[in-house]
Amino acid sequence: MEIKLPPRPGLTGILSATAALNLLPLLGLSIYCLSKPEGAFRALGSEGIEQLGNTLQLLLLVGLGVGAFGSSIGWLTASCNFPGKKLLTIAQLIPLATPAYLEAAVLTDLGSREGLRLHGLGVAAAVLILSTLPYVVLLSRDSFRQSGRKHLEASRSLGLGAWASFRRVALPMAIPAITSGVALAGMEVVNEFGAMELLGVPTLSTGILQRWQGEGDPQGATSLALIALAVVAVLVAAQRWQRRLSRRWDQGGPGDHFEGWQLRGPRAWLATILCLLPPLLSAGLPLAWILRSSDQLRQENLAELFGLSARSLALGLAAAAMAVFMALVLAIGGRWQKVAWLKASVFMAGLGYAVPGAVLALALLLLFAPLGLPPLLLLLYGYSNRFLAVAKGGLDANLERLPPSIEEAATSLGKNWQEVLRRVHLPILRSPLLLASMLVFVDTVKELPLTFALRPFNFDTLAVRVFQYASDERLGAALAPALLIILLGLSSALLLAAELKQEKIEPLPPLAS
Fold first, then answer.
1. What digits encode the pLDDT tens for the residues 317-359?
2. CB 136 within 8 A of CB 175
3. What three-state secondary structure class fits 261?
4. Which residues pair with 260 in a beta bridge?
5. Which residues of 261-282 are buried (b: 16+ CB within 10 A; e: fewer)?
6. At what angle do helices 462-471 and 475-491 cross, to 10 degrees?
7. What residues form DSSP beta bridges with 507?
8. Alpha-carbon distance 224 to 227, whole Å?
9. DSSP H helical ranges for 293-387
10. The pTM is what?
11. Dihedral of the alpha carbons of 143, 148, 152, 155, in degrees to the nearest 10
């Protein structure tokens, strides 16, 4: 069903400019690669085939893991009552705030002390599932909360329990949000470098940096980056196809409070354990290492960490504002405008997250360094381009649940697109915008390759300092800035406090044993 809205030239111009701004790095990569006499793509070779195969296997394993566990935890924290629910809901942010390379470093160090060699594809998949799980948890939880009480009351009246209602009623409506979260996790898998290097798993991301820095072959690195981009383009296209198949409009809303299921006995404890495991593992591994390495931690001077934290905080807030603004423009404009070339541009503009940070830095330097742009502005531009998909995925999923008749009714009353945006879209997207800002902030604080390559001289951040210490095998010194990264990420959970206080879930009678 198409949205029949009159053309909006002003919106078309804003949408075109935003899409073009985010397409520049991708075009720069393609032009640079095509400009070389060797051609756009080189033979992968045995190493390249192995890297591509490992990447695809990780995508499959991580996608299945985060899809199953993430949607289950999202349902439990949105629609059920069990011991410690509110605290455990906020605690789901801990894995997101803990960098995968930190988890891998701590895991390998603790394993070596016990005589274990933790490495390989299985361990890498487990680490990535743990670090990317919050993408699906947060987006699916928000979708479950938005479903309204009528659907849950109808399922209850038909004799369905909590999990039957989840499978047959709530899950089909949440498929767009879940697929958005799985796609974001997949993009993170393609881009992860540090954890893969530590765990000895060659992937496209490790091959890119190896060819660029180790072999001095920037064109070969760019060729691998375009292959990675093609992989993620297929992933995002599959996500959009699945969202179209599962499109369902919901007349309910966040204000339509729903009745939740009161879990008791074994069900309650099982729900608590399932929701406790991800934050417990993410926080427990670093804390266990600190307890065993406290002597190394005391030897470090922590005074400079305050300046590093301030820089990381400022960059995270600025990048979140820029990325969310551009994501809102692309999401709303893409919904209103049905011009084929413009829709294709909007789709391609959201693929910047597929480009590894190091290669994106190379593209930005090739494009803008001759213009003399300030390095800090270039860094913020790189952040907003790279994390645009993080912000846009949740907005698209929520907009697809909005019936076109609402916008058609607003325009029939003479409202222009600015008024519809202010009075219809922004109130509906309040929670997704908050989640998008938080996700971009956390990702910016822990981003390493892009920051390391584009930061101004003598402008280190917490992520850069962790990398410098870890590369010198000073893991004890790296723990302090790494824990501050976690604290900055968890501080963003305070933004959800108001949302949690507004939730009014009236428990239904306990389920029969």
1. 999 999 999 888 888 877 776 667 667 777 777 666 666 676 7
2. no
3. strand
4. 507
5. bbbeeebbeebbeebebbbbbb
6. 160
7. 260
8. 5
9. 294-298, 305-336, 340-349, 357-368, 375-386
10. 0.76
11. -100
